[in-house]
Amino acid sequence: MRGRFFALEGIDGSGKSTQLELLARRLEQAGFPCLTTCEPTAGPIGSLLRQVLTGQIPCDSRVVAPLFTADRLDHLLNGENGLCRAVERGLTVLSDRYYFSSYAYQSVDLPLEWVIEVNRPCAQLLRPTATVFIDVSPELALARIAQNRERTELFETEDRLTRTREQYLKAFELEKDREQVVLIPGDRDVETIASDIWSTISTFLSPGA
Fold it and tell me: Tell me: the pLDDT tens digits for 9-24?
């Protein structure tokens, strides 16, 4: 049976990485073999992007957006651990970020419709069974970042995160006829959020879902 693909989204500091780990553990316990992954990837293009995000390499936003798409296409199609093949093999794939991250983060500087179009090949190859958006305020996100990390990345300012959250919501509205998106309030304790995510994800796991 073909597997499922779930993308976890949110602004930096939303807690999605923690929730991905908890969800993977629960899926494995329920008998669903999982592959967990993230974007940018650890591949050559993803490694370049991480240097851009940490300010080591200056790069124009019109270059950054297609680089994210290139990294994503390799993530989907590479012969070693491509996501398309994993889903075809019946694995449940969980990704910490997917193309809605590009829609939100890159469209702060570029037209949203253009960013969506640049990523259209990725959507045609593999659309998420569902995208889970963990919604937190930029103030809470920044407080969590300050608590858990010694350094911030390029997009981790209150103004930038506020605008990015707005673009997430705008992208969800634009793509609502093509995408299954679930918003989860992220300003609660970890266990409550994890329970809500599991309740949502479990509805997509039956053979007929």
Answer: 999 999 999 999 999 9
Cα separation, 147 vs 40, whole angstroms:
23
Hey, is 137 helix, strand or coil? coil
Give the 3-state secondary structure of residue 82: coil
Q: Whole-model pTM?
A: 0.93
Task: With CA atoms as reference, report the closest residue to 130 among 88, 170, 160, 100.
Answer: 100
Between the alpha carbon of residue 60 and those of residues 67, 157, 180, the distances in Å are 11, 18, 31
Tell me: the pLDDT tens digits for 50-89? 999 888 999 999 999 999 999 999 999 998 889 999 999 9
Report DSSP state, residue 34: E
| Secondary structure (3-state) at 131 | strand
Query: Strands across the sheet with 92-96, in order?
Result: 34-38, 92-96, 5-9, 130-135, 181-185
Are the beta carbons of 22 and 194 closer than 8 angstroms? yes
206 CB-near residues (< 8 Å, 6+ apart): none
